[in-house]
Amino acid sequence: MGPLNGLVVLDASQIMAGPYCTMVLADLGAEVIKVEKTQGGDDSRQMGPYVHGESTSFFQINRNKKSISLNLKSQEGLDAFYKLAEKADVIVENFRPGVTKKLQIDYDSMKQLKEDIIYCSISGYGQTGPYSHKGAFDLVAQGMSGLMSMTGEPDSRPMKSGIAVYDIGAGITAAYAIMAAYIHKLKTGEGQNVDLSLAEIGLPWFTWEAAAYFAGGSIPQPTGGRHRVSAPYQAIQTRDGYMMLGCANQKTWERLCTNVLEKPEWIQDPRYKSNSLRKENIDELENDLEAIFSQQDKQYWVDKCEDAGVPAGPINNFEEAVQDPHYIEREMIMEIDHPVIGNMKMMGIPTKFSETPGSVRTPAPLHGEHTQEVLQTLGYDLEAIKHLENEGAVHSYTGQISAQN
């Protein structure tokens, strides 16, 4: 059993940020009941690619959850949500501010049902402030926060991150915020409202950039494959492609010069004697380095750096990364059998606990797969559930559950 065994989470979120948060909680043992719309369910179910008609995008971040499909605009569907909320420790939602109040599932409404509820809202700009009424997506947040202005090559057009960094970041931030609120609840018995914004969660990550700007007004610019502060700490071209070289301090630089490149004279070179000088002369430094690195393949240099204690590694594409034996041995690539998709691989769990490890117990649920099961735990009998289905208040999965390999 995971460390969050016994925690009950009612997940009213969809697409990525909220579902990623609740997946993390579910992986660590929480019981997550995912509330989906009766018409189509979570919007990510309509995002490809598909296998046998099921979205593999939805599959990747909704494991270990149960799916109940409710029409929250109907009184009967709303009543079922209220009954679920009374049994939950945590509610997670990512509607635009104001929507939950219209649906009558906002924090104040839920607090009346359960005084100690932990209610986490993930939105574009937060529940307050001049932009709170606006919607935002990951790329909008990347643009507003300044991330796109400092990503890519110098003098290039603004460039996004390679992944949905703020959606995932919001999910991770929400997960640790919820766990902190839960610890507070265990100590005091008090619940609370947790307000998170996609446009804000990434700002604290700009540590070096903030250091430069608040100290001297320096506005960060794109640095391509180079680090903003340390040098050489960047992508380096070898004979057969690029590798990553990380000389983040003077000691590793000296090891690189002496033990890897056999250029001990560079240690006293007036251009390269200190990190700040190496940054000032980064173009010359890069040319000097690549003149040597281009003579051998990247694996040769990675091995030589490793022997010398200089941090270095390959720059893999995604296929190379997921086939890396280290990730495989550490169970960062896992496989599970889905009742419609069949066997499918997914990303593993990065947190390794010695006593209460997380686990992948069930695949992502089918739309409304657990509607009847969950409603029965709330006291509804099959006749009452059938009535709710006929009224359009709930949706139950009615297809045949058997893997199609």
From TrEMBL:
<keyword id="KW-0808">Transferase</keyword>
<dbReference type="InterPro" id="IPR023606">
    <property type="entry name" value="CoA-Trfase_III_dom_1_sf"/>
</dbReference>
<dbReference type="InterPro" id="IPR050483">
    <property type="entry name" value="CoA-transferase_III_domain"/>
</dbReference>
<dbReference type="InterPro" id="IPR003673">
    <property type="entry name" value="CoA-Trfase_fam_III"/>
</dbReference>
<dbReference type="InterPro" id="IPR044855">
    <property type="entry name" value="CoA-Trfase_III_dom3_sf"/>
</dbReference>
<dbReference type="GO" id="GO:0033608">
    <property type="term" value="F:formyl-CoA transferase activity"/>
</dbReference>
<protein>
    <submittedName>
        <fullName>Formyl-CoA transferase</fullName>
        <ecNumber>2.8.3.16</ecNumber>
    </submittedName>
</protein>
<dbReference type="Pfam" id="PF02515">
    <property type="entry name" value="CoA_transf_3"/>
</dbReference>
